[in-house]
Hints:
heterodimer; A: mainly alpha; 4 helices; 76% helix; 0% strand; B: mainly alpha; four-stranded antiparallel β-sheet; 13 helices
Amino acid sequence: MISIDQQLPPGDPLVVLGLLASAILFAVGIVGFLSRRNMITMFLCTELMFQGAGLAMISYGRQHMDLSGQVFVIFILTVAAAEAALALGLVVLLYRRKETLSAEAWKELAES
Amino acid sequence: MIPPLLYAASAICAVGLFLLLRQPTGKARLGATILGLAGLAWLLVQGVQASGALGFDPRVAIMSLTVAMATAAAVRVITTTRPVFAALYFVLVVVAGAVAFLVMGAEFMAFSLIIVYAGAILITYMFVLMLAQQAPDAGGPSVAYDRVSREPAAAVLCGFVLLASLASVVDDVRTTKQPAAMVEARANAAAWNRMRGMPELVKERITVELAAAGKDPMGWSPAGGLEVAQDGRTAMMPVTLADGTRHETVLRASDLPVNSTSLGWELVTSYPGSLELAGVILLMAMLGAVVLARRQTDMAEDDRRAAAGLPRVNVEDADLAGDRT
């Protein structure tokens, strides 16, 4: 198995590290989204996941020496900005209704 | 990467993060941090080994430090008990991400990441944190729901199964890699093609080349198109000099447009539709935010009418305002 490995051309360690970082950021983001109870922190965790996705785009762009990866990061930034504006507007609205940021307060999505 | 070792490293990271999510103090916290960092270091070392790179490269060292910094800051984002600190640690994640972008040669995106994320999005988060901040309760400098994580074990299990499966594709980076010369030749061909569309840039570069070759850089005119060499590293362009002689100007890869120029070109030539759509998405987000905030304005207007002795016009909102009080 090792001999086959050595016949392959060496990969770019920067690409590997970038992909690992993107996987780690995405995983930490999802752990945070599932385990935090503050709505603002939960949305920060989605931003962490956006960061991970962007890093993966840049890494694969470098692997294939193609600019499309970087172009896609521009669109990821756009979507992240739109998401932040809408989600934070919703958070402020929800906070005004119940005076708490805890996601548990909205366990039952019904008018009370 | 060898899968069992990869899973072991992920599991160590997972245990470290799980212990940190339980908000330990003192030595327990130090131990959990060291455990998590050890798992991370093992993961990174496996990654560099799997890439088959030989020898020491300072860029790899910078990148490893950046990855460690981003991970540590990301873990602080999800373990800190105060949302303001979480937002500030997220700025650190963004800065580390921008450094990684820079190391990987995406200069334009690195700086726009800092401007858009650290400059704009995080300021929005800070505003919302100020608008919707609850006073800390008796248990410490934070509120109760920030101190206790919800189901940390299940969340960590979910996250790190994902990490292990995502990291196992890292192997493909090597096995599916095409010969470097081929990738470079294709990328250079695309870059020269982009340069053909930028006549002003070609003119500038040729003037510089002519001056460097000791020819008269003024008053020349092109006598043909840009001919790219087989390996894509150089390109020739015949020009007629001011004194009427012909000269073959050689442009090298260092004359190719820089990252931001090529990125802008790629964006408007290959993805014009997506660019328009991105504009529409931003416009819709703005409209959505206005609609979300609108009810408050209506009530204020209605209250103002009532205060001025005019009849209320928005009955529904008046009812809602009554509910709220």
